[in-house]
Amino acid sequence: MTRAADPDPFRPAGAVPLLITGSLADDGFLDWIRHRAGVLDLQAEIRRLSPTAIRVTVAGPDPLIWAMEAACSLGPAGVLVEDIAREPRQ
Predict the structure, then answer these.
(1) In DSSP terms, which residues pair with 55 in a beta bridge?
(2) What is the pLDDT of residues 44-76, one digit of tens each?
(3) For residue 8, is pLDDT > 70?
(4) Could you give the domains of the chain?
(5) Mean of pLDDT values over 37-44
(6) Which SUPFAM superfamilies match (predicted)?
(7) 1/4 Cα distance (integer angstroms)
(8) How many Cβ atoms from other residues are within 10 Å of residue 79's Cβ?
(9) 42-69: string of b/e by CB count within 10 Å (b at 16+)?
(10) Is the pLDDT reported for residue 9 higher than 80?
(11) Distance from the Cα of residue 57 to its chain's centroid
């Protein structure tokens, strides 16, 4: 019996929506997210849902998406991220 190879964590397998909630009224946070995605070489679609919610859909290797999630959880000064929920891959 042969085992299927483990999926390569560095190969994108679809976009991952992240729902970020907290005190996010600072519009500079959207630019900050865009910049971080660029630094990590991720594709990102950013949509403000309300002053307390942003959906960021990122595509790229899983380890870099995890790094993006960690960076967003810390956020820039003036922003308080309370939660980041991963939604199913698209």
Answers:
(1) 19, 47
(2) 999 999 999 999 999 999 899 999 999 999 989
(3) no
(4) 15-86 (3.30.70.100)
(5) 95
(6) Acylphosphatase/BLUF domain-like
(7) 10
(8) 19
(9) bebebeeeeeeebebbbbbbeebbebbb
(10) no
(11) 6
Q: Which two tokens stand for residue 3?
A: 């085992």
Separation CA 50–CA 18 (nearest Å): 15
Taking phi over 0 as left and psi of -120 to 50 as alpha, with beta for the rest, 66 belongs to alpha
Length of the chain in residues, anyone? Answer: 90
Which is higher by pLDDT, 87 or 56?
Answer: 56
DSSP letters, 14-81, are: SEEEEEEEEE---THHHHHHHHHHHHTT-EEEEEEEETTEEEEEEES-HHHHHHHHHHHHH--TT-EE
What pTM was estimated for this model as a whole?
0.82
- Checking if the pLDDT of 35 tops 50, the result is yes
Q: How much is the average pLDDT of 23-30?
A: 88
Token couple for 53 = 């919610």
